[in-house]
Amino acid sequence: MSADEAVSSGTGAHLVVLSRGEALRLLASVSLGRVGFTQQALPAIRPVNHLVDRGVVVIRTHSGSALLNHSLRSEVVAYEADDIDPATHTGWSVVVTGVATRVTGAEELARYQRLLTPWSGAAAGDVVRIEPELVTGYRLTTTP
Amino acid sequence: MSADEAVSSGTGAHLVVLSRGEALRLLASVSLGRVGFTQQALPAIRPVNHLVDRGVVVIRTHSGSALLNHSLRSEVVAYEADDIDPATHTGWSVVVTGVATRVTGAEELARYQRLLTPWSGAAAGDVVRIEPELVTGYRLTTTP
Predict the structure, then answer these.
(1) Chain B residue numbers touching A11 (CB-CB < 8 A)
(2) Among A10, A52, B68, B82, which one has the highest count of C-beta atoms within 10 angstroms of its own C-beta?
(3) In chain A, how many domains are there?
(4) Which residue of B has its CA nearest to A92?
């Protein structure tokens, strides 16, 4: 999101760029997002649950093994959450880009497993931390 | 989504793999999704509007220029849409992977511009077609 894109238009909603703090606050206000990563050299997206813990995005998902496959200890991912009304085209979207690492510490793992409910329990062990290096976001509003 | 992931668990929702037809039908039932692509060698995600036109996913977005930048005529992207209840963890998610190409034909462009409303009008000219080569999807349900 460049500053230029914050310039609103006459025909659609106004795009207002969010600060990093505001973006992380909005991200923490919802529990569902989508992680974007590279799988076999192709872009991939999966919806997952998240929480924001002291500025770090933590996700838990059955696709964790696909996210950090081929014995990678870490990789860069994009994480997006939004709350956009498809009818009015108002709301917000936040994208965090950063290094994803599987949580392996027993105590930390147990804590996140308590806090995050996976959608399917079958392969629910994977908890992944995303360090937000780049945080972008915007609000779509009908008022200037 | 491998067949193994369709095996349900005792603790979470049941994951049922969708057929290609059912997945595209569900995708067509909503207007908001997220496109995943590679930008400067990093994974990126943007929420956009879409429609499904004769089996092809068509999106219109102010981020179209980021999606097909550096004079690329086409590139592989992932497109995801879902309708998941964060409280009950039921709903569905569909991911289409395929080659994205900018629509340039005047007649086709005008037709899609009528059908798809961009969120911000400033740079609303970009319409991108995604040919669904790989279509995956699942339903999360509390009943077997």
Answers:
(1) 121, 124
(2) B82
(3) 1
(4) B47
How far off is chain A from B113, nearest CA to CA, in Å? 13
Q: Does residue A144 sit within a domain?
A: no
Percent of chain A with pLDDT over 90: 51
Q: Which of A12, A119, A124 sits opposite B140 (nearest CB)?
A: A119
Of all residues in chain A, the one with the smallest CA distance to B94 is A46
- Looking at CA atoms only, how far is residue B105 from chain A in angstroms? 23
* pLDDT tens-digit series, residues B26-65: 999 999 999 999 988 899 999 999 999 999 999 987 654 5
Residue B48: which residues within 8 A CB-CB, separation 6 or more?
A: B32, B33, B34, B35, B59, B60, B61, B63
Residue A126, SS3 per DSSP = coil
Full domain range(s) for residue A93? 10-138
- As given in the structure block, the two tokens for residue A30 are 């919802």
Residue A4 has pLDDT above 50, yes or no: no
Q: How confident is the model at residue A3 (pLDDT cuts 50, 70, 90)?
A: very low
Q: Which residue in chain A is spatially nearest to B33 when comparing CA positions?
A: A86
According to the model, what pLDDT value does residue A76 have?
Answer: 93
Q: What pLDDT score does A128 carry?
A: 92
Write out the DSSP string of B61-122: -TTHHHHT-TT-SEEEEEEEEEEE-TTT--EEEEEEEEEEEE---HHHHHHHHHH---SSST
Whether A128 is in a domain gets the answer yes
In this predicted structure, the answer to whether residue B7 has a pLDDT above a threshold of 60 is: no
Query: Per the domain annotation, does B1 fall within a domain?
Result: no
